[in-house]
Amino acid sequence: MATAFLSSLTRGIGRYALVAALTAVFALFATLAPGFLSGANLLSVLVNNFALLAIVAVAMTFAVSAGGIDLSVGTAIDFASFAFVSLVLAGQPVALAALGGLAGGALVGVFNAVLIAGIGISPFLATLGTLFVGRSVQQLLTNGGNPVYLPPAGVPEAFRFLGHGTVAGIPVPLLLAALVIAGAWLVLSQTRFGRVVLATGIQASVVRYSGIRLSRVTAANYVLVSTIAAVVGLILTSTVTVYIPSSGNAFLLNAIGATFIGTTFDPRGRPNVPGTVLGVLLLGVVANGLLLSGLNFYWQQVGTGLLIFSVLAIGFANRKAAARA
């Protein structure tokens, strides 16, 4: 009786360790970091630290849910950004340029789909190769990695809207992040495609023997991952009005970290959209709080790494306890 109670308590603590960690760091920085609780700073956390990373991390969640990973999400961001800027510079309407940007990002997913679902290369090696190929292609397209600027006087107002506009007082990047999060949750939890993706990550052989064309699902999933990541390329380019080669890779490690932190929110340790979102919020609050506390960049990285280790350790301990129960 006592053993069962302790096991149940351990599982409960493990599952909500992410919520507890987020609450703890929020309370800590509210006490130690000057201006942390100001409305302007909290909005900055949501727009600058949360919105873009949340979109990339949600894309990564699809890849990890299927038992793989996508190291080329930064490349999808960069290709979307390059296509968007190039089409705007060519005088195309902003809406058409945005569609072209999404197509540019999706092209990375198509390349991954051919490697993984077509040829059978492992997701890690395939997307790592795409990362390197994408970096080289960007160098070739920009004469060695030169940024592509948009002239301030010639930037259409509609172009700036994605990065600087508001709808009913809500910043557009934050609104787009919310739409992507809601859509991703619906797809993974409420659709047949999402259930197949999750089942593939648990036991791919069962999915294959059930008569489902696993290669089609895998291909569609990687195209979806890159298309979601491409949204960040559009927002980022609209915000800074410049394309900088390989800048999308800055999101990669935090997206992976947030996705795996989010697995602790699921009692079975599986990737899930709510957990990923909480993981992104945790990383964003920590980065902002450490910055306001006056710690330099290197100590910020140490603090973030220790926090990731702590949350994951509790999550793994929770799964061990559940397995023994």
From TrEMBL:
Location(s) in or outside the cell: Cell membrane
Transmembrane residue ranges: 16-37, 49-69, 81-104, 110-133, 167-187, 222-244, 250-266, 273-292, 298-317
InterPro entries per UniProt: ABC_transp_permease
Top-level taxon of the source organism: Bacteria
Keyword Cell membrane among UniProt keywords: yes
Pfam families documented for this protein: BPD_transp_2
MF annotations from Gene Ontology: transmembrane transporter activity
Keyword Transmembrane helix: yes
Membrane topology: Multi-pass membrane protein
Keywords of this entry: Cell inner membrane, Cell membrane, Membrane, Transmembrane, Transmembrane helix, Transport
Chief place of localization: membrane
GO cellular-component term (any): plasma membrane
PANTHER family linked: ABC TRANSPORTER PERMEASE PROTEIN YPHD-RELATED, ABC TRANSPORTER PERMEASE PROTEIN YPHD-RELATED-RELATED
Protein name per Swiss-Prot or TrEMBL: Ribose transport system permease protein
